[in-house]
């Protein structure tokens, strides 16, 4: 596919057919994604390919903690899991929130599930002392994650970047044998889409880019 077509049609895919994701296709996807940039070109990413049904079911179970709060806050009109505004729903309300089965369907129905980790020893976390949540280490892993999704689209497959299970990261690490000094950045169900979108809706350039300052004039050609 032409590059811009891939970029404009790589949406979140959550429903998959029963078509397999062969190892040779997955290797080709990762073989191209590995050229993503990382801090100092240290290439601290690591991918665990999960096909076992029981392991997938365990990942879905470990996602319930994050999903409950996400759903409870959304229902209450809050930005779920945002690091700025305090949660307004009670712990009891969160615990009483039902998690519908469809939230686990992508992990269970994909051809494979990729658990993408990053070695924290090679992340230059320039924001680690700022009075906010850290985001800079993601620069050494998320270009790679996005490269996987772009390459999958180019191969006729699709996927979705999920992170709900990371709320229980210590237990996921134990499940998958991930060392303490690695962080889980994403869990990617990858497979053949039931329906591949041909057009995505996003904000315009003028809504997300401005000249010189945050409050500057919108960028328009």
UniProtKB/TrEMBL annotation:
Q: Which UniProt keywords apply?
A: Oxidoreductase
Its domain of life reads: Bacteria
Q: Please list the residue ranges annotated as the Nitroreductase domain.
A: 12-192
Query: What family does the entry list?
Result: Belongs to the nitroreductase family.
Hey, what's the signal peptide range on this chain? none
Question: What would you give as a GO molecular function for this chain, any one?
Answer: oxidoreductase activity
Q: Is Oxidoreductase one of the keywords UniProt gives this record? A: yes
Origin species, per record, is: Mycolicibacterium moriokaense
Q: What is this protein called?
A: Nitroreductase
């Amino acid at each position: 596919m032409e590059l811009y077509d891939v970029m404009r049609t790589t949406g979140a895919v959550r429903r998959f057919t029963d078509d397999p994701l062969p190892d040779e296709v997955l290797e080709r996807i990762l073989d191209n994604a590995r050229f993503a940039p990382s801090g100092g070109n240290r290439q601290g990413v690591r991918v665990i390919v999960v096909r076992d049904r029981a392991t997938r079911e365990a990942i879905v179970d470990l996602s319930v903690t994050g999903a409950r709060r996400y759903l409870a806050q959304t229902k209450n009109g809050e930005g779920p899991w945002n690091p700025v505004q305090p949660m307004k729903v009670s712990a009891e309300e969160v615990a009483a929130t039902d998690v519908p089965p469809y939230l686990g369907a992508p992990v269970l129905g994909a051809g494979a599930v990729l658990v993408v980790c990053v070695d924290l020893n090679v992340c230059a976390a320039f924001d680690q002392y700022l009075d906010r949540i850290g985001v800079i280490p993601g620069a050494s892993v998320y270009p790679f994650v996005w490269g996987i999704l772009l390459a999958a689209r180019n191969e006729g497959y699709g996927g979705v970047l999920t992170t709900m299970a990371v709320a229980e990261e210590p237990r996921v690490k134990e499940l998958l044998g991930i060392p303490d000094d690695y962080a889980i950045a994403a869990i990617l169900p990858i497979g053949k889409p039931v329906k591949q979108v041909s057009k995505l809706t996003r904000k315009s350039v003028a809504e997300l880019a401005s000249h010189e300052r945050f409050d500057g004039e919108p960028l328009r050609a």
